[in-house]
Design brief:
This protein has about 350 residues and is mainly alpha-helical. It has one domain. Helices cover about 70% and strands about 0% of the residues. It starts with 13 loop residues before the first helix and ends in a 9-residue tail after the last helix.
Amino acid sequence: MNNAPESTTYQRRYDIDWLRVIAIGLLLIYHIAITFQPWGVFIGFITSQHPITALWTPLAMLNVWRIPLLFFVSGMGVSFAMRKRNWKQLIGERAGRILLPFLFGMFFIVPLHFFILQKYYKLDLDYMLNPGHLWFLANIFVYVLVFSPLFFLMMRKENSKTMAFLRKLFSSPAILVGIALVFVAEVLLVNPGSYELYAMTWHGFFLGLLAFFFGFCFVQLENGFWPMLARAKWFTLPLAIGLYIVRITVFQLQPPLYLTSIESNLWIFSVLGFGYRFLNRPGKVLEYLSKAAYPVYIIHMAFLYLSSFFILPMDLPSWVEFILIIFSTFGGCFLVYEFLLRRIPFIGILFGLKASRAR
């Protein structure tokens, strides 16, 4: 079928835009904080000689849901995109906005920050071809290819009895238990060494696959789902906090995988519920940040490493280093976005901007 789905109803969900911006912002803070963990160097980060180990307490809470949330939001975004496109247009649009920036970043952006790393530690300079922090973009593009036939079928059957049943199912709090159990099954079957090892692992692939699928369903079957989630947030949030405390105090951050999976989903349900209740509002700040978030994420590691390269040798107090690197990383990213990426169309396209968004 070459025609777009008949349903043209489209109401922008500003809370989902905000959650995407917040998720990417948290990823930047998370990567900056790794610079101040003593083990950061072992995963390819330039690290400070003045670690701030206390940062890992909040980071450990964030680490179990930061990446899954991005996959959920990506699935939601595809649901909205499909309302205005047929399958050829969808694949073409996603290839331009996901696959092209992934390939460009892998060949030109990621090797740049590895070059800075080699220079800082006086290693032999070598070109390193690696997806780096962009690994999940390849996953998302694969998910679009895998799920497109099913997703378009669901949209064409929007008024069927099956879809009516699914909408009713997704309006019940019991669906949250069912979804959590699906993710528990994933970790029990894949059995990763650590729940937080997402990048370029089978665990990260299948976890993202499930999150992407359910993210689409949350929007496509939204009648009753989001109000239910907004009511459930006062139940899911205390449970998430409780499991986090248990993970720290009882298991010293090494709980059974199924407990971490349940905690992860509880955090995500809570974030989505609070977002729906409080963030579904437009604004100039959101309009700007929602366009900037993607290209800023693509370039942020280069600016993080560049900031570390110049600031860490100053031998400043650890918190001063941390604050300076935050400001210089964010500042550098937004300066490049504002004065280069969004103003020169053919460059902006390489970083995931739509042609109409670049001046």
